[in-house]
Protein: dTMP kinase
Organism: Gregarina niphandrodes
Amino acid sequence: MAQENINVTNDSKKLRTCKEDQGERRRGRFIVIEGLDKSGKSTQSSRLAEWLRIEHGLEVISMCFPDRTTEIGHCIDQYLKSKSDISHKAAHLLYSANRWEKQTNIRQALEDGKMVVCDRYAFSGIAYTHGIFNESLSWCMYPDEGLLAPDLVIFLESDPNRNMATRLESGQKERYEDADKQQKVGEAFRAFYGSPGWHTVATGGQSIEQVHEKIKSLVTPIVVRCEHTKACVSNTGKVVELDLPEGLDESWHFLNFV
C-alpha cells in the first residue's frame, strides 16, 4: 500500500493519508464542509449539493456529522443537549464511532460514482476536543485512523462572537455553543491549515451567495462535463467526467498517522 504524507500539525504525530490503488475504476468524490457552530456549514453544504445536482446532473449523497439518527448519534444528541453527563473523552469516542458506522455508506456511494457532500467530519472531532479540553492532537486523532479521507475539505472561517450572537437570537444553545469555546476550537482548526486538499474560505462580510460562489470555484476543477467517458453517475442520463487536479487520483485514501 503506497502512502503519502499530509503535514497538518506540529504535534508529536502527524495526520496523513494511506492510499489503496483503485486501478482504472472511477469513483465519486468526497467533499467535506468544516467550520465552527453557526458558521454556515449546513447552508453551504445544502447549496453545494443542489448545485452539483442541477448544474452538473450528478447524483449526490448529503451527510452530516454527528448523524443523530443512529443509536450512537442519539447518545451524542443527549450529550450535546446536556441531557446526559459523560466525560469528554467518552464523547470524543462516540463522535468517532458515529463516523465509523457510516463508512460503508460513504464508500458504497463513492464506488457507485456518486458525489458525497458532508457537513463536518473527523476534523471537527479533533479540533473540538483538542481546543476545548486541551487533549493532545495525537490522542484526538487516533480513533479516526483509517477513516476514508475526503478529496476536498472546505473550511468556513468565521467570527465565533458573531456566530454565537446568531445562536442566542434563535433561543437554542447546545453544550459547546459558547464564544470562548468556539474561539479555542477555531484556533485548533489551524492545525490543518496548509494541508493538501484543505481550503479556507473567509466568510466575514460575505453574503451566503458570495461564499457559495467561492465554494463553487474550489469544487469546479474536479467536476467537468464529458459525454464520451465513464466516470460519475448522472441522474439525468448524461455521463460526467471528473477532471483530476494535481494530487487527486482514483485511489482510496485513508486517514492515518506517523
